[in-house]
């Protein structure tokens, strides 16, 4: 799972000098070190942001009550300056204390590495709201400190300072919410790892409202209060050519607005970027892709939904892969496209049947695992050769394999493909496995389709060429060369026919008419055997005798 560039920068700044991918796998020592680092940096960020807002608030209060004159005597040299400084300092300290009090239980849990229960997950998700409450409470306490410390406190001054500090609390709380939501994502990743959010707790709307409050609402409300106060003669009118109170409000709107908009934009863009990157990976077939679920808004629900979706796709792909391994890629793809049902068509196909000689004896005298290894090696070679010639392994049955060329996908010359595959298969089996076998090749019209019941069926080919091919495979075990093909297959092929030569006719078991037999030229003796030699070979006692 990848994080966006800005997300990695935030994680590196707060938690580690190196971005962390799997927060749940950290050891206790690393968790303690990272938690300490994040706590210290968070305190610094909170203090600096609140200090900046305090300076803005102080200037606005002073300018509002002195007619917008920006001088030393009306700002730093004013009599109420110590009271405001004291109020701000107390507010900063209380903000840190309250914030740590609400954050500490979650940090302690993170350090232990224990699994989050339901209450813990809720507590982690509520941390940003708790930080907002701590910030607002601290600012209200600051108002009380100002009232206690300031000299010549009037009702107008108390109202003005209270309104100013209230607006500051709103602005600071919004910034704190956005920062806390982003800074505490590692905790959310760990807490929501096994139980992701299924509904929004902190909506995107809340973030946008926070951005609107800081960038537009607070400055505009301040401007309205300033002008209403002047209109009611509660506040003095501007004395100079420049109304610095209005200018400061505009500067606050621009600077604070840009800060908060950047935070909100990143908080929305980063997870969406991660989702886009993850979608690209899934599109490339990487179904093990997941995104970290750390957002408590609708985006977090989307992250959770994406992971569920990809998990379903991964399971579907596993089932499809298993299905394809059982019936073959071509049949699996055909079944998924055409749907269910017992159906089929007539097709001219090339059929290849290969069977091992003496497998029963091998199973009787060998360790079953050794027998399985031989069969696996045998079937692997068969599958590779048939696939290279665009054929389909219709079934593995015992120690035999049936391959079809021309169904379910049409082949321009199925007979030639079956014959070429038989020659290559014979060469490879001779060179790699110390076993005897027989290969039969036929060509003809068959029924190709799904056979079985409504609840369970399989794709297969049925017809005389299939039966004849099995008989030729048995017969091939008794002759030199171990490969036999019928005349229909050789005559239906074009360039492949020159590699085969007729070796006579036989009445194959189960048939009445004689079948003309062909063998690959490369497997024939230098002098072609006569009919009597072939009969002698077939009837030799040392070899298996077949009734033909």
Automatic annotation (TrEMBL):
One of its GO terms (molecular function) is adenylate cyclase activity. Keywords: Cell membrane, Membrane, Transmembrane, Transmembrane helix. Belongs to the adenylyl cyclase class-3 family. CDD domains: CHD, HAMP. SMART domains: CYCc, HAMP. It is a multi-pass membrane protein. Its main location: membrane. It holds the Pfam family Guanylate_cyc. It is found in: Cell membrane. Signal peptide: none annotated. One of its GO terms (biological process) is cAMP biosynthetic process. This is HAMP domain-containing protein. The lineage of its organism: Bacteria, Bacillati, Actinomycetota, Actinomycetes, Mycobacteriales. The keyword 4Fe-4S does not apply. GO terms for cellular component: plasma membrane. SUPFAM superfamilies: HAMP domain-like, Nucleotide cyclase. The keyword rRNA processing does not apply.
């Amino acid at each position: 799972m990848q994080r966006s560039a800005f997300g990695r920068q935030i994680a590196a700044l707060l938690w580690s000098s190196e971005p962390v991918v799997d927060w749940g796998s950290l050891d206790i020592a690393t968790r303690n070190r990272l938690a300490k680092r994040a706590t210290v940096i968070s305190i610094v960020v909170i203090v600096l942001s609140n200090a900046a807002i305090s300076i803005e608030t102080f200037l606005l209060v002073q300018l509002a009550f002195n007619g917008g004159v920006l001088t030393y005597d009306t700002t730093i040299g004013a009599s109420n300056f110590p009271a405001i400084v004291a109020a701000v300092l107390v507010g900063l300290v209380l903000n840190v204390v309250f914030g740590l009090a609400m954050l500490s239980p979650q940090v302690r849990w993170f350090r232990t590495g224990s699994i989050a229960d339901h209450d813990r997950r809720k507590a982690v998700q509520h941390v940003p709201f708790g930080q907002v409450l701590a910030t607002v409470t601290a600012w209200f306490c600051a108002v009380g400190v100002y009232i206690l410390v300031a000299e010549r406190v009037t009702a107008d001054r108390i109202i003005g300072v209270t309104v100013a500090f209230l607006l500051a609390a709103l602005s600071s709380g919004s910034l704190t919410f956005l920062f806390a939501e982003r800074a505490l994502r590692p905790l959310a990743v760990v807490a929501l790892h096994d139980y992701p959010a299924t509904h929004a707790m902190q909506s995107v709307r809340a973030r946008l409202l926070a951005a609107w409050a800081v960038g537009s609402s607070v400055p505009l409300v301040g401007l309205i209060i300033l002008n209403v106060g002047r209109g009611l003669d509660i506040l003095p009118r501007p004395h100079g050519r420049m109304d610095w109170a209005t200018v400061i409000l505009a500067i606050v709107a621009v600077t604070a607005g840009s800060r908060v908009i950047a935070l909100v934009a990143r908080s929305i863009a980063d997870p969406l970027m991660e989702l886009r990157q993850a979608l690209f990976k899934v599109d490339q077939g990487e179904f093990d892709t997941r995104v970290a679920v750390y957002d408590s808004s609708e985006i977090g629900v989307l992250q959770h939904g994406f992971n569920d979706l990809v998990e379903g796709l991964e399971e579907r792909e596993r089932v499809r892969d298993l299905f394809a391994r059982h019936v073959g890629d071509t049949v699996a793809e055909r079944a998924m496209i055409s749907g269910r049902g017992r159906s089929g068509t007539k097709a001219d196909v090339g059929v290849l049947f290969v069977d091992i000689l003496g497998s029963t004896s091998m199973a009787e005298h060998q360790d079953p695992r050794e027998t399985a290894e031989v069969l696996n090696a045998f079937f692997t070679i068969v599958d590779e050769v048939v696939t290279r010639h665009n054929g389909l392994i219709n079934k593995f049955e015992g120690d035999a394999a049936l391959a079809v060329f021309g169904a379910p996908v049409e082949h321009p010359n199925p007979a030639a493909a079956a014959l070429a595959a038989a020659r290559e298969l014979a060469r490879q089996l001779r060179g790699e496995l110390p076993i005897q076998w027989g290969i039969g090749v036929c060509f003809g019209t068959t029924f190709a389709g799904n056979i079985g019941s409504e609840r369970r069926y399989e794709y297969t080919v049925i017809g005389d060429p299939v039966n004849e091919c099995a008989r030729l495979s048995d017969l091939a075990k008794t002759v030199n060369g171990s490969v036999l093909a019928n005349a229909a297959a050789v005559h239906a092929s074009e360039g492949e026919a020159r590699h085969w030569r007729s070796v006579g006719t036989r009445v194959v078991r189960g048939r009445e008419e004689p079948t003309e037999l062909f063998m690959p030229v490369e497997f024939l003796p230098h002098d072609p055997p006569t009919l009597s030699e072939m009969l002698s070979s077939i009837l030799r006692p040392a070899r298996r005798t077949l009734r033909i």
